[in-house]
Structures are given as structure tokens and as C-alpha cells.
Design brief:
Number of domains: 1
Low-confidence stretches: 62-67, 69-73, 129-136, 190-202, 224-256
InterPro entries: AIM24, AIM24_sf, Trp_RNA-bd_attenuator-like_dom
Organism: Dactylosporangium aurantiacum
Shape: globular
Structural class: mainly beta
Strand content: 35-45%
Pfam family, one: AIM24
CATH superfamily: Mitochondrial biogenesis AIM24
Order of helices and strands: EEEEHEEEEEEEEEEEHEEH
Protein name: AIM24 family protein
Number of helices: 3
């Protein structure tokens, strides 16, 4: 038999519904052994599977229509069902499995890898009159009891928010927060410099959190690929959305 560190990466033996095959890959077990018959996953995230597994790539929950209304994009979920084992990954990002026990958790839609169908989910957004690139085209609020797998680019920071202080984070780095928190968006620079990528300071839009809960921040600021957007309008290139600065009141709070 071949002797190699590569071939030592055999399948993790587990009947858990969601378990880490490694830090970059999720193993989801369907069928009698785990008690899970179906789950939702990021469309296109399957890298391998075994057994009688079905992938409904045309699945569109009602939330997709809300997401499209807000952002012009559909909710990129597929329904996975059957009996077998499914391996999921996304661009070799780090994967974290959370057990939700009733409290709401809001995750950037781009960072949701998979979640159990018994979790209730809804599309939410930060209440603002313009769209800000990097603040999350849409966010998924998950509530109930079940597992969810979340991706991050690098090992994240988890900030514990308390009512005794003010907490801020770069909108391009925040990927999740407790739904009980009050969230607002604000410009970190003057309105004229917002038109330039990140203004003069390198930090254009901040999220402010208040209340009590957790905020997850990844060590990567996901800026739009300006050079690849040649030919688009300037507002779109610099993260201001289709409305540009029109009607900008520097944002209010999120009502959730």
C-alpha cells in the first residue's frame, strides 16, 4: 500500500449529522444512522458523496424572492436528501459547526454552508437606503434547534457585546452576530471620500452593535474586485449600490 501523508486523510468515522472531515471540509450524514433525512446546503458546495443522495439544485424557498427583491440575487441554496454521506466545502474556507438551541443567529448569506431543515430561517438586511458592498448582500437569520455550518476566511474573532460599551467592526469583515443585538451602519469617513474605495483611511463603512450577544469577525475584508468591474457605473464599482448616494441619511438601525 502507498505510504503518504496525503493518503492518511481517510474519511472520519462518525454518524453525527454534521461533523468536520477536516477544518476545510464538512461531512453530512443522511439516513437512519444520523436521523437526518434532508438539509439545506450552499448551491455548488458538494465536493463528494456516497450512497443514494439527491440534490435539488432548483430548490427555491420563499425567502429567495425576498433576497432578490433586496439585492437582485437569489438565495443560493439547494436541498439535499436521501441516505448516504455528503462532503461539502467552499474555496478551502475554514468551517465551523454550531449547535443552535433556540436563540437567533444572523449569518451573511455568503458564509452559510449548510443547515438543518428544522431550523427556521428568514432573510434580513441592515435597514439602509443604499446597498453597501461587503455588508452582506443578504443575511440569513436562523432560529430554533439544530446545526448550522458557517465558513470563514481564516480563524475568526468572536466579540462578546455587553450593554456597557460600544462595539464596532468593519462591515467587510463581519460575518455573523446574535440576532438579539441592535445593529446600525455608519460611514467612518466623510461622504465625499466614501466615493473612493474605503476613503482615505482604508475603512469606509462600519457596523455598530449594541445590546448583549456575540459578533463574529473574520480576518479578511472582502472588497469588490474593482479592476474586474470595468464598464459598470461608478456607484456600483465603489460599493454604493444602484442608488449611489441618493437619499443617503447615513443609515438607521436594524429593526430586528
Amino acid at each position: 500500500m502507498y505510504q503518504s501523508s496525503l493518503l492518511a486523510n481517510q474519511e472520519v468515522q462518525s454518524n453525527e449529522r454534521f461533523t468536520l472531515q477536516n477544518g476545510k471540509m464538512l461531512k453530512a450524514t443522511l439516513g437512519q444512522a444520523s436521523g437526518m433525512r434532508e438539509f439545506y446546503a450552499r448551491k455548488g458546495a458538494m465536493v463528494a458523496y456516497q450512497g443514494g443522495v439527491n440534490f435539488d439544485a432548483q430548490y427555491q424557498g420563499w425567502g429567495s424572492h425576498i433576497a432578490r427583491h433586496f439585492t437582485g440575487e437569489g438565495l443560493n441554496l439547494m436541498k439535499v436528501s436521501g441516505s448516504g454521506t455528503v462532503f461539502l466545502a467552499n474555496q478551502a474556507q475554514d468551517i465551523h459547526v454550531l449547535d443552535l438551541t433556540g436563540d437567533g443567529f444572523t449569518v451573511d448569506g455568503n458564509n452559510v454552508l449548510a443547515f438543518e431543515t428544522q431550523l427556521r430561517w428568514d432573510i434580513v438586511r441592515i435597514d439602509s437606503q443604499v446597498q453597501v458592498a461587503g455588508a452582506g448582500g443578504y443575511n440569513i437569520e436562523l432560529t430554533g434547534n439544530g446545526k448550522v455550518a458557517v465558513t470563514t476566511t481564516g480563524a475568526p474573532l468572536v466579540m462578546r457585546v455587553t450593554p456597557n460599551n460600544y462595539y464596532f467592526a468593519d462591515a467587510d469583515a463581519v460575518i455573523a452576530w446574535s440576532s438579539s443585538l441592535q445593529v446600525s451602519m455608519q460611514a467612518a469617513v466623510t461622504s465625499s471620500s466614501v466615493w473612493r474605495p474605503r476613503g482615505n483611511t482604508g475603512e469606509s463603512w462600519q457596523m455598530q452593535f449594541s445590546g448583549e450577544g456575540l459578533v463574529v469577525v473574520q480576518p479578511a475584508e472582502l472588497m469588490p474586485p474593482y479592476d474586474s468591474l470595468a464598464g459598470t457605473d461608478l456607484a456600483g464599482r465603489f460599493g454604493l449600490g444602484q442608488g449611489g448616494m441618493q437619499g443617503n441619511n447615513f443609515f438607521g438601525g436594524m429593526g430586528r
